[in-house]
Each structure stands twice: as C-alpha cells, then as structure tokens.
Amino acid sequence: MALSMHKDSSNNKQMDSSKYVRYTPEQVEALERVYSECPKPSSLRRQQLIRECPILSNIEPKQIKVWFQNRRCREKQRKEASRLQTVNRKLTAMNKLLMEENDRLQKQVSQLVYENGYMRQQLQTGSATTTDNNSCESVVMSGQHQQQQNPTPQHPQRDANNPAGLLAMAEETLAEFLSKATGTAVDWVQMIGMKPGPDSIGIVAVSRNCSGVAARACGLVSLEPTKVAEILKDRLSWFRDCRCLDVLSVIPTGNGGTIELIYMQTYAPTTLAAARDFWTLRYTTSLEDGSLVICERSLTSATGGPTGPPTSSFVRAEVLPSGFLIRPCEGGGSIIHIVDHVDLDVWSVPEVLRPLYESSKILAQKMTIAALRHIRQIAQETSGEIQYGGGRQPAVLRTFSQRLCRGFNDAVNGFADDGWSLMGSDGVEDVTIMINSSPGKFLGSQYNTSMFPSFGGGVLCAKASMLLQNVPPALLVRFLREHRSEWADYGVDTYSAACLKASPYAVPCARPGGFPSSQVILPLAHTVEHEEFLEVVRLEGHAFTPEDVSLARDMYLLQLCSGIDENAVGTCAQLVFAPIDESFADDAPLLPSGFRVIPLDPKTVTLTCQSSADGAGATRTLDLASALEVGTGSNRLAGDGDPSNYNLRSVLTIAFQFTFENHSRENVAAMARQYVRSVVGSVQRVAMAIAPSRLSCNMEPKALPGSPEALTLARWIFRSYRIHTGEELLRVDSQAGDALLKQLWHHSDAIMCCSLKTNASPVFTFANQAGLDMLETTLVALQDIMLDKILDEAGRKILCSEFSKIMQQGFAYLPAGICVSSMGRPVSYEQAIAWKVLNDDDANHCLTFMFINWSFV
C-alpha cells in the first residue's frame, strides 16, 4: 500500500513539472536576454539563471529547458518561413520573366514563319514564270523588295553637337536598346547550362547572325533599382577588363535624366593584340512604369556628335545600342535586363586570335554575367548571407581581387603612359621583357613605393603568349594551382618575396632542380557561385644541404583563381598571385604575376583543322604555337582520334613581375627571361600530359635524376641502412654515387624518403621509379604529398606505435598493409621497412620507407 502511494505521488509530481506554464512578461524578457547570448544553455547555466533571477525562482529547471527548446524551434520556423517567402517571391518574379520570354519567342517564331512563307512564295513565283537567269534576277529583286518593306533604321539628319541633337540620339538609343532587351531586334539563343530557377544567376542568351557580338541576361536581385543602377554605372568595380572610365561631360535632360559623354579604355586579354577604347554616349532615364534605364552607344562619324579623345596605342571599338533595364519587383528587389552589344574591330587582330573577338560567349562571361554576379554578390553581402573569416570586410576582400587582376592586366599590356618601356632582347623573341623605372607613375595607389629601393630601381616584367592545342583551360589552371612545385622555382619565389623587405636577396642563379617545397592553401573568400577563389598560399621549403637552410623558409602568397569550372562555356581561366608578408595588412603592396588561359571558339578551330590538309604545319599560326608540339605526337591534328575528345585551342598568357635595383637590372632580366622559358617548358609538359587526346598514350620512362643532391642522398640511404641493420640494402659492384643512385632508382621495390620536420607533417622529398609508379605521381609533384595522406588508419596507428623504435633503434619492420596512391587507388604491400637516414655528420636527415612486393588492388 505504501509502495502504491509512493508511485502515485511520483506521478503527480511528474505531471506538475511537465504541465504548461504561463510566463509573465518580465520572465519572458529575462529568458530572451539569456537566449540572445546563448540559445542553448547547459544545465548548470539554467540553474545559475534561476538563482540569479528571483522572478524565475518558481519555475522548475526542466520547464526552463522546455522553454529554450520551444524558443529555438520558433526561431527555426521563422527562418524557414522567411526563406520560403523569399523563394516564393523569386519564383513569382522568375515566372513573370519566363512568360515575357515566351511572348518574345512566339513573336520571333511568327516573324520567321512569315519571312519563310514570303521567300518561298517569291521563289515559286520566280521559278514558274521566268528562265533561270530571270529567276535569279527575280529572287534578287524580291530580296530588295523585302528590304524596302523592312528597311534598315536610318538616323535622320541632325546636329548632334548640341544638347537637343544629343537628346534625340539618346532617345533613339533607348528605343533600340529596349527592342533588344525585350523585343526581337536580335536573334537570341540561350547559353548552354544557364537554366532559370530561384537560385540561378538568371536567363543568359547570346546573339546569332548579327553584326558584332552581343549577349543578354535577365536576373533577380534583392537590391532596390537605384542601388542597382549605382553599382552598374561603376563599371571599374565589376568589369575586370576596364582600365579606366572617364565621364568628360554631363548634360541634364528635361525629363529628369542625364546624358554623359564617356571615354573608356579596356585591357587586351593577351600580349598578341592591341587594347580597345570606346567613345560613347550614356543615357540614364526613367520609364512610365517606374523602371530605370541606362543605355549607351558609341559616337562615330556615322552617328555624329562630339569627337572623342585621340589615342595611339588603342584600337577604337564600337558599342552598339546596349544597356541596363532595371524594373522594381513586387515585394522588394529588382528585375534586371542587361544587353551588351559591341563591335571589337576583329580585322585588326591576327587571324588565329579572331575567335576571342568574335565570340558572344566570351563577351557574356566577361561583361554580362560578370555584372549580374557582382550585383548578386553585393546583395548577399548586404543581407548578411555571406560570412567571411579572418575578420576582413567583404569590400576589402573584393578590393584585393580587383588589385590582383588590375596589376596582372597592367603587366600583360605594358602601357607606355604607365611608364613601361621595351627592353632589348637576347636574340630570341619568345619572351618579352619590359621595365618600368618610374614606379610612382605606374603604381599610383596600386602599390606601396616602399617596395623600391630609395637609391633607384623599378619593376621588370617578363611575359609570353602561346597557343595550346586540345587542352581544357579549366583543367590546366586547376593543375597549376594544386601542383605549384611542377612549374615554380623556390629560389625565384624567395627573390620575389624579398621585394617586401628592406634588403632584397641576391639574384638567384639557375640550379638544376633546386630544392623541394610544399604548399598549403588557406581559403580566404569565394564568390557566390564559387567561380572565383581568393586564398593565401603558404610555401614551405625543405633544404637538402646546410647552405640551403637560410633560403628554406616559409613564404606567403595572396592568390586569385577563377574559371576552373569545366562546364562553363566561354570562361577565361586565370591564376594570379603576389607575395605578401606575415602581417598582410589591408593596404599590403602587391606585385601580381600569373597565368591566363582563354578558349578559342571550337567552331573556328574545326574549320582551321579541316583546311589544313597540307599537314600539321598549317595549324601553327603563331611562332609560339609550334613550341608546344614536342615528341612523336606533335603532328597530330586536333580532330584526330576519339571524336569525344576536346577539339579546341586556347591562348595562354604568362606574365611575371620582379623588382630590381639599377645596378642589377641586367641580372634580373636574364633571370626573369630564363625563368619564364622554364615555366613555359613546364606548362608544355603539363599540357601534353593532361590533354584528353593524349591521356591514353604510354608515358615514357621517368628520367633518372642526376643532381648532386640526389647522388648524396642515395649514398646516405645505403650507408644508413647498413649502419642500422648490419646488412647491405643492395649488392653493387661500385660504391660510387652514380652507381648507387642507378641501383636505387631501378629497384623493383618502392623506396621513398620523407622529411623529419618536428613542426610539420612529414612530406615526401624523394622516391625511386617504383615509388613514383606506386604513388602515381612525378618527382616534382611528389613534394606536395604528405605521408599521412597515403597511409590508411591502420597503417598510421602502426607507424605511430613504431616511431619511437625507429628513432631509437634506427629501423623497424612494418607488417603488410594497404596504402593509397595520389590518384586514390588502393595499393597493397607484403612488408615495409622504415629507417632513419643520417648525413655525413650522423645527424638525422630524413626517414626512408621501402614497400616490398607492392601491387594495385
């Protein structure tokens, strides 16, 4: 009976503690204050809250726990409801855009059906009533009759040098722009991969069969129209190819708008073509429905108007009626229509480069999509949807990206008005050297003049351009980013980093192979769609000899990587970097170098291949292109082989900048020229290795390294094995270094060495041919692989348990196991031996592993 009463009492107490509690406003306020600081307080924190707040003393800790649970649930539901409302608004606006696009396409179809029927009727009438000659004349006359019915718009005679004439031209520009943005003035074709949706960048289309090149986009953003207009008019902030934009005159109009006369200069994308400039009229006004319009067109001799500034180093290009239509969206935000239509004077560039100036897809990526992405980025930063680490403001990170791109473009173009001048060559025209001895004129606010010695100096740029055959640009740049040691020289990186110090190092001399280094990429920021990455790269040097210790130190680079999405159409892939110091201030000086790969239109390349029946030499349009064709497969055309392979060419531009003192200018120039040639050779090898048409080719045997460091290391490996185990690693007739290295290199078991740094993970520094085959890598790329990345969990545990034995006894036998190659393939081995390698002073140098009887699983 007592037990039963005890149970009933417990049940009543449980019911009392879990019943609904009505909180007073004061209690809710106290709980809300705690929730704002800690949404999920611990049990101790809740008990402390009851003790510290007398108004909560009558509430059980369990009930307070339930209150916090309910509060978190309400917050989650509120955020989800807000997200769904935002998605619903986007879908509603996108549906409106799609309906308008559907109406436009229906009008375009009706127009095409009418024109097709008219031409068919004229052809039938002409063939039935006249002879063959008269038939041709009838067709021509019918075409002329159609042109008379649909004449090309002719601008009326006017004086465009006064405000009234400029206003008339502006109104005509507005009408032509709107006919392209929402009408059928241009035959638009949707770009591949640009599908509409609530999270997509928008609807993107390119022109077909029109004069010049054109692109159009429609998108949604959460910013108000006036803010969007302000951002779009600041072209320098989002158009990376824009060098300068000067508003030379502003004329207010009677309808509340403005007319601006603008002079704009743009960078050339490569060293093989001249830059472009534009002289335009820009008209900003409002429509009756509240929409904002910013439209623009060039002022030429045909249109009339004031004459633009004269230029000598630029090619004058033309902007055909283009602009932005910004419509307010119900519920907030804006619907943006963008049209870019330009004539870049394609006939002024070499024939092989004309696809760069004839491609609407490249224009869409560089201007149209770039504008939409920039606005979307600003919108998400404003709403707090994007969080960056490191305590940096988004505007500061964007400035870093802009400075890297601008500095690289300045180096590629080398404008005389920036202070650049051409330096004499060494007789071979593959690398161009330019110098800038007036950094104040060149740098402006871009860099810090403390980078240059007070007793004289400047900037030297070594640059080159080349054609790549059948190499995906995104894949190449991704490889260059992830495997820096395949092409970079640590000594040159050291010299570049020394420009940030008061006393730069001596000019590095050429060394066969140098000494290895590894890199660690630290993400800093990325754009919304991850098409661009800003990151800090830490370079770690590993010295083989004592004299290298002073150079083998950590260095840092600020790096910008973009265009590595292989599915993007017409995207320029780019890798730009600049040395920075450890402090990395917001106004840190930057001297960018890097790579840019721009795809050429596959259609144009296909025609070139078809016309090269005389041999592969017909495809070598530029001298630098022939430098890529190395080996037995160099005479293959792009169209040979598997038709599923890539069939394209791309233009690679390389530019490296260095500071110099006046007394060392010639030495720095020689070093830079040699280094760029070395980088070009490395890129050629990488390009041939990753070209899809060559992936199935048999690779040549890896060359035997012959550097003094490798010979010394081989001797240390044999000697240390004999000291620790009392046995010989291999039976060799001669103890000479080259004989030992040859035996070690061709040994059937995988032998590899890794570093013994106490403050960093062990990194591989050497492997014989079997070791490279097991890891599926090269001798240079090996230095980016860490030991713990190839061992599985069991192997890491065994190595940790045996490590002390290895360091005390000098060696240890490890049981059979599984490891992983750099390509992710599992590799089994029957046994492994690990031993310390001692140098001539019997000090620890590295750790060597030998994997016996290994094979891929």
From TrEMBL:
Task: Enumerate the spans annotated as START domain.
Answer: 159-387
PROSITE patterns in the cross-refs? HOMEOBOX_2, START
Instruction: Output a single Gene Ontology CC term carried by this record.
Output: nucleus
Compartments (UniProt record):
Nucleus
Xref: Pfam families: Homeodomain, MEKHLA, START
- GO BP field: cell differentiation; meristem initiation
- Which keywords does this Swiss-Prot/TrEMBL entry list? Coiled coil, Differentiation, DNA-binding, Homeobox, Nucleus, Transcription, Transcription regulation
Polar residues: compositionally biased ranges: 124-143
Query: Which spans of this chain does the record mark as coiled coil?
Result: 88-115
Q: Where is this region: Disordered?
A: 1-21, 124-162
- The Homeobox domain covers which part of the protein? 14-78
Tell me where the signal peptide lies. Answer: none
Q: Which residues bind DNA?
A: 16-79
Composition-biased stretches, type Basic and acidic residues, lie in 1-10
> Which SMART domains does this UniProt record tie to the protein?
HOX, START
Which GO molecular function, any one, fits this protein according to its record?
A: lipid binding
Similarity comment: Belongs to the HD-ZIP homeobox family. Class III subfamily.
Q: What PANTHER family does the annotation carry?
A: HOMEOBOX-LEUCINE ZIPPER PROTEIN ATHB-14
The name this protein goes by in its record = Homeobox-leucine zipper protein ATHB-14-like isoform X1
